[in-house]
Amino acid sequence: MNESFGKRLARLRAEKAMTQRDLASKAGISWSQISRYESDLAQPRLKVLMKLAEALDVHKDDLKPPDKKEITLSLSDEMISKIEEFAETKKIAFDQAVQLIVIMGMKMKLDQDPLLVEELESEIPGAYESLLKGISNDGA
User: Fold this and answer.
1) For residue 67, what are the CA distances in angstroms to 2, 46, 53, 129, 138?
2) What's the whole-model pTM score?
3) Cβ neighbour number for residue 32 with a 10 Å cutoff
4) Structural domains in the chain?
5) Coil, strand or helix: which one is 42?
6) What is the gyration radius of the CA atoms in the chain, in angstroms?
7) Which DSSP string corresponds to 43-97?
8) What is the mean pLDDT of residues 47-68?
9) Per-residue DSSP letter, 139
C-alpha cells in the first residue's frame, strides 16, 4: 500500500531531525498546517508542496500525494484572465478553477453523447459518478 502524504512528510521531516515547528518555520507556513498535513487532514497546494520540498531538501515528487497527477496547460493571456475572473467569482484558487472548468467540460461532452458515457463506464465503472461528485465538491 502507498504511504500517505502525511506519513511521508512526517518520515522525511524525522529523517532530517526536524520538529514540525522547525519545518513550518523553514517552509514559511504555520506549525498547525504541518500538523494537519501529517495527520492527513489536509493536502498542500503545489506552491506549498514546493516550499516543503525545499525546506526538506528533497524533490517535490518525493512529497507528492500518490493519487494526484500534474498536467501542464498552455493558456492565452485572455483565457488566464477569464479563469481568474471565474475563480474570483467562485472564491476558489486558480488551480481549482481550472480543474472545475475541465471537469465541467468533460461533463458537458458526456451529456451530449450517451454512448460516450456507456463507453466510459464500461472501461472505468463509476467514472461518471466520480465526475459529478468532483463538480459538486468544487461548488459548481
Assistant:
1) 9, 14, 18, 18, 18
2) 0.48
3) 11
4) 5-62 (1.10.260.40), 77-137 (no CATH)
5) coil
6) 18
7) ---HHHHHHHHHHHTS-GGGTS-TT---------HHHHHHHHHHHHHHT--HHHH
8) 83
9) T
- Mean pLDDT taken over the chain: 85
The answer to whether 48 and 19 have CB atoms below 8 angstroms apart is no
Cβ contact 42:52 at 8 Å: no
H-helix or E-strand spanning residue 138: none
Q: Are 96 and 56 in contact (CB under 8 A)?
A: no
The model's pLDDT over 24-41, given as tens digits with 9 standing for 90+, comes to: 999 999 999 999 999 988
Q: Rounded to an integer, what distance in angstroms lies between the CA atom of residue 103 and that of residue 53?
A: 29
Percent of the chain with pLDDT over 90: 39
Residue 133: in which H helix or E strand, if any? helix 127-137
Of residues 133, 89, 81, the one with CA closest to residue 107: 133
Residue 91, sorted as left (phi over 0), alpha (psi -120 to 50) or beta, turns out to be left
